[in-house]
């Protein structure tokens, strides 16, 4: 089961929201879609789901176009949460499960399983409006997965969740992946993306500015962070060409350098003067790559 996005473009009047995105996502992958606010992530999701027609290009699942009619194949956690506040959790999920073609006993069985798993079995008979935002999010997640979709699209699944709930959701997503579900998700929280994805696309103003395996991206990225531990004074590094930042933490001096060549140079300078107990070149964090590539400002 392959999800294929080919040269997809979406134009709203004069505005190009998505501009020539391509990606191949294999069965059982967890694929990350990153970008600042307004970069085009939700628009891309809507095209994958068949809720929006691309202006150009195509999205196919096993060679055929996805449409919301093939709804049993797809699970979607939208960014704008869409639960009915006055319905109980059971009523809500029964309604949504029926739309996905499930029988009532199957819905109840799955619902109980998920509520147990999320440690909130007592929510079955609570109205959605009585639940906190984070807990509503868990219910919305259950709504996206209750019918065991083959393709799961999660738009900002971790927003608003505390660390415990966030971990619970991550475990659930991992288990679904193990069971063969193909998962595409967006997140502004780079640590979540680092933990979960093998492949990513980073979007800016509708275009892919970085794409591929996260490991390769990090390996090839020039920006390097170095942690140094020594009793010697290395403050001369502050004005060293190629050193882009210098910070003294409690134990280490942490600097950032432009590339590997500068890292080598710094190594020779620092070690020439005597004993250094630590000199560690770390991979760049996705957070730093994001800031470097996308910048601080939103795209909208
Ligand atoms: N129906 C629409 N009509 C006109 N413009 C739209 C429409 N939908 C989205 N846009 C524009 O397309 C751009 C991309 O929006 P999109 O919602 O895909 O971004 P996003 O990456 O999901 O952002 P966020 O992280 O804030 O959710 C934005 O500039 C937005 O204003």
Automatic annotation (TrEMBL):
Sorted UniProt keywords: ATP-binding, Nucleotide-binding, Transport
SMART domains: AAA (SM00382)
Family the UniProt entry places it in: Belongs to the ABC transporter superfamily.
GO molecular function: ATP binding; ATP hydrolysis activity
Keyword rRNA processing applies: no
The protein, known as: ABC-2 type transport system ATP-binding protein
PANTHER family named among the record's database cross-references: ABC TRANSPORTER ATP-BINDING PROTEIN (PTHR42711), ABC TRANSPORTER ATP-BINDING PROTEIN NATA (PTHR42711:SF5)
A Pfam family it matches: DrrA1-3_C
InterPro entries in the cross-refs: AAA+_ATPase, ABC_transporter-like_ATP-bd, ABC_transporter-like_CS, ABC_transporter_ATP-binding, DrrA1/2-like_C, P-loop_NTPase
Domain ABC transporter: 3-230
């Amino acid at each position: 089961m392959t999800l294929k996005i080919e040269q997809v473009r979406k134009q709203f009047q004069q505005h190009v929201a998505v501009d020539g995105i391509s990606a191949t996502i294999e069965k059982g992958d967890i694929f990350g879609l990153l970008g600042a606010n307004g970069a085009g992530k939700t628009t891309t999701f809507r095209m994958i789901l068949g809720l929006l027609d691309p202006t150009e290009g195509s999205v196919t699942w096993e060679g055929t176009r996805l449409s919301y009619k093939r709804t049993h194949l797809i699970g979607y956690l939208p960014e704008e949460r869409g639960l009915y506040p006055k319905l109980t959790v059971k009523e809500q999920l029964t309604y949504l499960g029926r739309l996905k073609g499930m029988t009532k006993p199957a819905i109840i069985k799955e619902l109980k399983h998920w509520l147990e798993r999320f440690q909130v079995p007592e929510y079955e008979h609570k109205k959605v409006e009585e639940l906190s935002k984070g807990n509503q999010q868990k219910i919305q997640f259950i709504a996206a997965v209750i019918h065991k979709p083959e393709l799961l699209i999660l738009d900002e699944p971790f927003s608003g969740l505390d660390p415990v709930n966030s971990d619970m959701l991550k475990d659930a997503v991992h288990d679904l992946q193990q069971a063969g579900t193909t998962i595409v998700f967006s997140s502004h929280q780079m640590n979540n993306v680092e933990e979960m994805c093998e492949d990513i696309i980073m979007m800016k103003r509708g275009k892919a500015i970085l794409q591929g395996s996260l490991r390769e991206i990090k390996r090839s990225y020039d920006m390097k962070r170095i942690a140094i531990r020594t009793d010697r004074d290395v403050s001369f590094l502050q004005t060293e060409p190629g050193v882009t930042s210098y910070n003294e933490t409690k134990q280490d001096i942490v600097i950032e350098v432009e590339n590997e060549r500068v890292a080598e140079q710094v190594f020779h300078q620092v070690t020439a003067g005597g004993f250094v107990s630590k000199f560690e070149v770390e991979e760049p964090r996705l957070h730093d790559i994001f800031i470097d590539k996308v910048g601080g400002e939103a795209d909208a």
